[in-house]
Amino acid sequence: MSPCVPNTHSFKKITMTTKHWLATYGDLIPAEIDPKAYPSVAHMMEQAMAQFADRVAFHSFSNAITYAETDRLSRAFAAYLQSNLGVKKGDRIAVMMPNLLAFPIAMLGIIRAGAIQVNVNPLYTPRELEHQLNDAGVEVIVIFNGSTPTLASVIDRTKVRTIICVAVGDGGVQVIDSPPVDAGLPNFVRFCDALLLGESIAFTPVALESDDLLFLQYTGGTTGLSKGAALSHGNLVANTEQFKAFMPAALRPGQEVVVTALPLYHIFALMVNFITYFSVGATNWLVANPRDADQMIDTMKKSHLTVFVGVNTLYAGLVSHPRIMEVDFSNLRLSAGGGAAVIPATSAKWREITNDFIREGYGLTETSPVLSFNPAMVNEFSGTTGLPMPSTDIKLIDVNGCEVAQGLSGEICAKGPQVMRGYWNQVEANKTAFTPDGYFKTGDVGVFDEKGYLKIVDRMKDMIIVSGFNVYPNEIEAVVSGIPGVLECACIGVSDEKTGEAVSLFVVKDKGTVLTRDDVVGHCRKELTGYKIPKFVTFVDGLPKSTVGKILRRSLRKTT
Fold first, then answer.
1. In a structure prediction context, what are the per-residue pLDDT tens digits for the chain, which is 560 residues long?
2. Which of the chain's ends, N or C, has fewer CB atoms near its CB within 10 Å?
3. How many alpha carbons fall within 13 Å on the CB side of residue 420?
4. Which of 369, 434, 418 is nearest to 210 (CA)?
5. CATH number where 549 lies
6. 222 lies in a domain?
7. Cβ–Cβ contacts within 10 Å for residue 138, how many?
């Protein structure tokens, strides 16, 4: 029996009459998808490996493997887990690595063995890693060599009994220079050796169903310790089918080429770049370190990409890169943005370079992740996150839990087959995570227009209250980003004796740009009402960001 609260709020209970966006769907998008189109993600991926056997599945540095090779290697890893480690259905296995060839091989092996994958950020601190491993009850970890010093510092305080270490080139033919395993971990298995052992072992298929858990996907933990969102096979199958219903022209079987710069341990890239595009036979170019901009440009040049997925900061960095014009974007069919608000100026620059705008979506770890997206019929940047997915209901509520009238903002609450069943081992948190009628409370503030397009105003906790008026940082940041010479910016609320809070803005300028506080404030006065104008403007060399590229406003608060 799972320690999670069951998701008894079935998507079938959605009241269709409340979905005013269905009129905008017209005949182009189905109102409902089949959330059980496949019994499990494993079934979906196995079908793809058989159908696209000869097609290249992944590129990583100088290595490439086909779908057939991915099938063989992941089956070998699953057999090793079963026979050598005694892994059983429902066991939790941590995976802690960047976008390397070993990631998809390990993940497919783990889910084929019936285990639950616990995705871990390879840049976690010892405290963060210790908490996640113990909270999930992990006894086996697959870890990049370069992250082993962190594990070595906490291993004695965890239940981990088996360590499988991954070198950069594991899974491919070419050996690539890789960091050594930390000397504090004398007992470990090399991933390449596990694959060799597994090749000679018979694999026993595991019966998997929609309700079986697939991932424990830990949230960012902006307040307190992070929580593991319990995502099932059915959650991810449903979200894949929902995404396909919205973007069929960018999901052509056996034809798409994806560049994956966002980390696969993050739910956005995991669902869209890996699971969804793998299911249609795409070729995936893995970028291990997107901060190495020149190497990323080189990868994009080789790929002849048709699909690119990123966050605003990633796009902003690319459009300002001096070599971006070397990339051939003539085949690009989809530029998707999420994780944080896409700034209009960034999309405009991207379109100028690629002839394709950034198609924005919205979702959370707890929703597998996509709740809304700008569908194929949208042909320009709108500043909204699009329409709710098929089989999904979204309502906006006020502080009293009452649904707001159309056109007013409220907390976004969602129900659908992609919504998690609950947080792992978090009985109290699960009691407050859902509304009484079963909608997941996102903590984000949004507003619908008359056609059903959802605009994210901001996070509730990031809202600034100036003299009793609500100020949302996203709006101010979008305005300031439109100033020539502004590379990126972020704002927070700070205490103020007269107004309660005041807006404090941090700005990163392009190199060589001459820009003053008066320039910024003057521009804001033309675009914003008085109480929204920044009182403080600080020019900085860079903004604190997560490994996915989200700007960390909480870190800025610590500096004030």
1. 334 343 444 333 333 347 999 999 999 999 999 999 999 999 999 999 999 999 999 999 999 999 999 999 999 999 999 999 999 999 999 999 999 999 999 999 999 999 999 999 998 889 889 999 999 999 999 999 999 999 999 999 999 999 999 999 999 999 999 999 999 998 999 999 999 999 999 999 999 999 999 999 998 544 457 899 999 999 999 999 999 999 999 999 999 999 999 999 999 999 999 999 999 999 999 999 998 999 999 999 999 999 999 988 899 899 999 999 999 999 999 999 998 788 898 999 999 999 999 999 999 999 999 999 999 999 999 999 999 999 999 999 998 999 999 899 999 999 999 999 999 999 999 999 999 999 999 999 999 999 999 999 877 788 888 877 778 898 899 999 999 999 999 999 998 888 888 999 999 999 899 999 999 999 999 988 888 999 999 999 999 998 888 899 989 988 77
2. N
3. 32
4. 418
5. 3.30.300.30
6. no
7. 23
Question: Residue 326's CB: how many other CB atoms inside 10 A?
Answer: 11
Is the distance from CB of 343 to CB of 371 less than 8 angstroms? no
The residue range of the domain holding 98 is: 67-208
Instruction: Choose among 450, 367, 468: nearest CA to 412.
Output: 367
In a domain, 534, yes or no: yes
Cβ–Cβ < 8 Å for 357, 308: no
CATH number of the domain residue 172 falls in: 3.40.50.980
Structural contact between residues 377 and 442, judged by C-beta atoms closer than 8 angstroms: no
Q: Which of 256, 345, 266 is nearest to 308 (CA)?
A: 256
- 257 near 304, Cβ under 8 Å? yes
Q: Which of 208, 230, 253 is the last residue of a domain?
A: 208
Q: In what order do the strands lie in the sheet with 370-373?
A: 63-66, 56-60, 283-286, 257-260, 307-310, 334-337, 359-363, 370-373, 387-388
CA R_g for the chain? 23
Rounded Cα gap, residues 457 and 472, in angstroms? 6
Domain count, the chain: 2
Distance of CA 98 to the CA centre of its chain: 14
| Distance, first Cα to last Cα, the chain | 47
Residue reference for tokens 């996102």: 442
Does 280 reside within a domain? Answer: no
Q: Which residue, 154, 177, 208, sits at the end of a domain? A: 208
